[in-house]
Design goal:
This protein is mainly α and about 180 residues long. It is built from six helices and six strands.
């Protein structure tokens, strides 16, 4: 009979420990904290930190690019044309043009790609679709399911095309005058 009671007691203690281990509650001064809720909160904060870090990097790159652009504009004969033609990297321009097209934009998520998208978004050339973020994009997929080009982005593309036409016309005129 004693053995049976000890076994029951051990089982009861084991059950209590199991219950305590799965739902530990710490209470101090009326504040209750459930440890099983900490992990999801940590994961959420980690994603927020990564997103904020990426946004800071994108803004830092914009500031560097703008500083360089200011120097170039000070030395340029046609600062407006220079501004339009050098504001975006070749990759960013390619992304913007693909978002402006009617075709799907199948992409592979990589850190430089995300930074380029954040730069385009910071300039107001693209925007997130409702309830979508750059951070939440899958590793591969159609970018147009997450982002869209803005009217400002379309206007930039028009100005860029005009600047390229003017460059080509100036180049053609220079060649003609030397022949």
């Amino acid at each position: 009979m004693i053995k049976r009671e000890q076994a029951t007691l051990n089982r009861q203690q084991g059950n209590v420990l199991t219950i305590v281990a799965t739902a530990i509650v710490i209470s101090k001064d009326g504040i209750t904290l459930k440890l099983d809720e900490i992990k999801p909160e940590q994961d959420s904060q980690k994603v927020n930190i990564e997103t904020n870090t990426a946004n800071i990097e994108a803004i830092t790159n914009i500031v560097k690019r703008l500083t360089f652009l200011e120097q170039e504009m000070a030395e340029s004969k046609n600062p407006n044309q220079l501004l339009v033609s050098t504001l975006l990297s070749d990759y960013e321009l390619k992304h913007l043009r693909k978002l402006a097209s009617d075709e799907p934009f199948i992409s592979e998520k990589q850190r430089p790609f995300e930074q380029e998208l954040r730069h385009l978004r910071a300039l107001g050339f693209i925007e997130n679709l409702p309830n979508k973020t750059i951070s939440s994009m899958p590793e591969t997929g159609n970018l147009k399911d997450y982002l869209k080009i803005t009217e400002q982005g379309r206007e930039y593309l028009k100005k860029r095309e005009q600047a390229e036409l003017e460059d080509n016309n100036c180049f053609d005129h220079a060649i003609e005058s030397h022949t």
